[in-house]
Amino acid sequence: MAPRKTQAPEPSAAPAGELRDGFKFRSGRLCLDLPASLAARLKAEPKDLLETPHDLGRWLVAAGLAAKDPKPTDEDLRHARELREALYRLAVARLRSEGLDSKDRALVNRWAAEPPPAPQLGPEGLTWTRGGVHSLLAAVARDGVELLGGPLAERIRNCEGESCALLFVDTSRSGQRRWCSMSGCGNKAKVEEFRRRQRGEGG
């Protein structure tokens, strides 16, 4: 009997909302939410929201991967940042229909080969066993392998919001989603378009 595939936690297992504990979760996939932890990526001075190991612990909880802070180390933080940037570069390459960098692929594949957290049936539903920060990062990497190597890779989009570098998976029926969030960048764009029309009418 073939072994069953152990899946990474689904986004539905995570706490609800696009903004959680100071982090943005707008992509629909863990592997794209992690790169979003480098805010203002396109600006001259981006802000790393994973500045300390405690920040990484907060992100893992906000992502729904851990029930409480798993107490990452400085080395865990370094690994998470490396994985984050590799996932971002690979996703951008898919977005642009470019080749995938071999070093980035090797890094993501190495993490995806780590044992992932195991699903357990808790009193309130699905929970995930502790396997340390390594297993939680493995879950993110596996999500990346599945996305970047599957048919949904063609649905990776870059938000059209001004200066927004967030990536997301367009699961809309039309395939024409433009914004990482309608309540965020989408709303800002609509307000700006309205003001532009008002200025034109008054000119």
Topology:
Blueprint: E1 19-20, E2 23-24, H1 30-33, E3 38-39, E4 47-48, H2 53-62, H3 74-95, H4 102-112, E5 119-122, E6 125-128, H5 132-148, E7 156-158, E8 167-169, H6 182-202
Antiparallel strand pairs: 1-2, 3-4, 5-6, 7-8
Helix pairs in contact: 3-4, 3-5, 4-5
Would you kindly provide a written description of the structure presented here, covering whatever features stand out?
There is one protein chain. With 203 residues, this protein is an alpha+beta fold. The protein has one domain (11-202): Orthogonal Bundle (Jann2411-like fold). Helix content is 42%, strand content 11%. It is built from 6 helices and 8 strands, in the order ββαββαααββαββα. It has helices at 30-33, 53-62, 74-95, 102-112, 132-148, 182-202, and strands spanning 19-20, 23-24, 38-39, 47-48, 119-122, 125-128, 156-158, 167-169. The strands form 4 sheets. The chain has a two-stranded antiparallel sheet with strand order 1-2. A hairpin with an 8-residue loop joins strand 7 (156-158) and strand 8 (167-169). The radius of gyration is 18 Å and the shape is globular. The chain starts with 18 loop residues before the first strand and ends with a helix.
